[in-house]
Amino acid sequence: SLQGKTAVITGSNSGIGLGVAHELARAGADVVINSFTDDDEDHKLADEIAREHGVKVRYIQADMSKADECHALIEKAGACDILVNNAGIQHVAPVEEFPVGKWDAIIAINLSSAFHCTAAALPMMRKAGWGRVVNIASAHGLTASPYKSAYVAAKHGVVGLTKTVALETAQEPITANAICPGYVKTPLVEAQIPDTAKKYDMTEEDVIQKVILDRQPSKEFATVEEIGGTAVFLCSSAANQITGTTISVDGGWTAL
Ligand code: NAD
């Protein structure tokens, strides 16, 4: 059980982050959820998770595109035994047309925030004598797709950061690993469907089957519960010697 542990999950008012928050709470951890907004719904989500799993849950607003807000998130959390670097955005365009602002935002949110939050959390983990860094990378941390230069670069970067943090903590009871999901049906993926349909002049259903799941041999989306369950496993004692590596949850994508 993760009772007595505090988990901070970045970008967790939606999708995979929210799913991971639920599964860590189900396993007994107190949870901090986060996004850049500060709406009633955000705080209601925290109350819902708390009620469902009987743990303490707080929502802390912080913009993961900004270094100081990454540090402030971990400081406000007060404890961070489990850090899940999950915040992420996507933009799809050919390299020569890729908007510079989108490149910068993707590198900041998908890669640099993991660095800043890890830097802020490691001293707390060392003080507590236990820690887990779980980075939500992607199949795109291991392979590429056209038109996703910033995302693929950021996710490969996350995998490299994961290995480095694992080496720096190798002789301590702290591990760092990356989960590499294939396609999970979340708002991030749903938003890509109309764009891709336009680009390839296809129906949205054809985009799902022939473009998105074309890469995923199982022909099924992974679920946020499955990603959350993998995070719980990485926090278990069975995973004490698993560090500096990636776990694919991709229906066979990277076996192709
Ligand atoms: P999502 O859009 O549902 O969730 C993204 C989360 O990040 C949201 O909670 C959003 O509020 C938050 N976020 C965005 N910008 C932020 C910022 N500046 N500061 C703080 N929070 C911010 O998408 P998702 O699919 O759940 O993606 C979560 C992570 O999983 C991302 O890192 C994504 O790259 C990765 N991933 C997703 C898939 C997939 O198929 N959905 C596959 C592989 C990896």
From TrEMBL:
Gene Ontology MF terms in the entry: 3-hydroxybutyrate dehydrogenase activity
InterPro entries referenced in this protein's UniProt entry, alphabetically: 3-OHbutyrate_DH, NAD(P)-bd_dom_sf, Sc_DH/Rdtase_CS, SDR, SDR_fam
Source taxon at top rank: Bacteria
Pfam families per UniProt: adh_short_C2
GO biological process, one term: monocarboxylic acid metabolic process
Parts of the chain that traverse the membrane: none
NCBIfam families according to UniProt: PHB_DH (TIGR01963), PRK12429.1 (NF009093)
Family: Belongs to the short-chain dehydrogenases/reductases (SDR) family.
This protein's name: 3-hydroxybutyrate dehydrogenase
